[in-house]
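hey can u run this one w/ zinc ion bound, need the structure tokens asap thx
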Amino acid sequence: MRCDTCKQEGPMVMRVMIAKDYNRSLARPIFNCPECFAQKERSKQRAGASGSETPQPNAT
Ligand SMILES: [Zn+2]
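ok here u go:
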């Protein structure tokens, strides 16, 4: 399997669903190695919990 982000062959990749708040036409599953997957998760959290039904107000 190949990572769609870093384009490297890896023994293990994870299927990542593009978040629903992205452009619909771009919505498609992609494959990420654990490293890129973790990076995406981090950037997702920074962008604001998109998977959460009830966003928590952040006091920071
Ligand atoms: Zn990767």
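The first helix runs from residue 34 to 47. anyway lmk if its weird
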